[in-house]
Design a protein that fits this description.
- By secondary structure, this protein is α+β, with helices and mostly antiparallel strands.
- A two-stranded antiparallel ribbon has the order 1-2.
- 18% of the residues are buried.
- The radius of gyration is 22 Å and the shape is elongated.
- It contains seven helices and two strands.
């Protein structure tokens, strides 16, 4: 995802929800006629439109929150606040759709720079908040394979 300071970050999350109003959950979202036919003929989820909507809304909300934040905030101190804000915004959107669900939790699983970034800049990224001793340890083989990426006389 693109952050507010125009950096890229990988962000993965989970959304847990429970059904708070079965009538809304079953009948307020999606094509109710088609859903009734498929529900009677198969053992599939009663209303796949709700899960699809939760996925779409959560992605939209997360893109907005990450897009308004710096990469350092997303990767470090802002993880909990982003999750809390996402939970509130997702719930507001779903309530507007009468989805009949209550968001229990939103948890950020992984937040990291892209793998291509880490391959080339990983040792320097690691050291951005470290001491000179950490740098010297890294350059002289303290972190396996990283001394090939840094040149030191």
């Amino acid at each position: 995802m693109l952050t507010g300071d125009l950096n890229l970050g990988n962000v993965e999350w989970i959304v847990q929800y429970r059904i708070k109003d079965p009538t809304d959950f079953l009948f307020k979202m999606g094509d109710t006629e088609q859903r009734a036919i498929s529900f009677l003929s198969t053992n599939e989820d009663a209303n796949p439109a709700v899960t699809d909507t939760i996925q779409d809304v959560s992605e939209s909300v997360m893109r907005k929150l990450v897009g308004d934040s710096s990469i350092d905030y997303v990767l470090t101190i802002g993880r909990e606040q982003l999750a809390k804000s996402a939970e509130e915004l997702i719930q507001q959107e779903l309530d507007g759709f009468n989805a009949g669900v209550d968001i229990v939790t939103v948890k950020l699983q992984t937040t990291s720079p892209p793998t291509s970034f880490l391959r080339f800049w990983g040792p320097l990224w690691y050291l951005r908040n470290r001491t000179v001793d950490d740098y010297l340890t890294l350059v002289h083989g303290g972190v396996e394979g990283s001394s090939a990426l840094l040149y030191h006389d």
